[in-house]
Amino acid sequence: KGTCHAWRNRLMLKERLMGTKNDIAWFQKIIMRHPKIEVMELSELYSNKGTRQYYRAYAEIKKSNVKEKQ
């Protein structure tokens, strides 16, 4: 249980976002403005093979401690 508690304090997620350029930009704005999420890194857009409409981007995010920011 001690390991699980320590892991919870350091939780970082690596997310792959897939969609149109507008969809990805919309979602990036949401996560960047969310008070409980700290965006560590956002990648550039990469085109998906076989389509001109859909792209992907990668984000590293972690849980933000709201109490620290106040």
Q: Would you give an account of this structure?
A:
The structure is a single chain. This protein has about 70 residues and is an alpha+beta fold. The protein has three helices and four strands. Strands 1, 2, 3 and 4 form a four-stranded antiparallel β-sheet that branches. A hairpin with a 7-residue loop joins β3 (about 45) and β4 (about 55-65). The longest helix is centred in the middle third of the chain and has 13 residues, at about 20-35. The relative contact order is 0.26.
The helix-strand sequence is HEHEEEH
- Strand fraction: 35-45%
Helix count, DSSP H or I runs of 4 or more residues: 3
**Mean pLDDT metric:** 85
Spans of at least 5 consecutive residues with low confidence: 1-7
Decide which structural class fits the backbone: alpha+beta
Q: Tell me how many strands there are.
A: 4
Cα-atom Rg, whole angstroms? 15 Å
Shape: elongated
Terminal Cα separation, in Å? 30 Å
Largest sheet: 4 strands, antiparallel
What share of residues is helical?
Answer: 25-40%
Fold topology:
Elements: H1 2-9, E1 12-19, H2 21-33, E2 37-42, E3 46-47, E4 55-63, H3 66-69
Antiparallel strand pairs: 1-4, 2-4, 3-4
Annotation keywords:
70 residues; alpha+beta; 3 helices; 4 strands
Please provide a brief summary of the model:
The protein is α+β, with helices and mostly antiparallel strands.
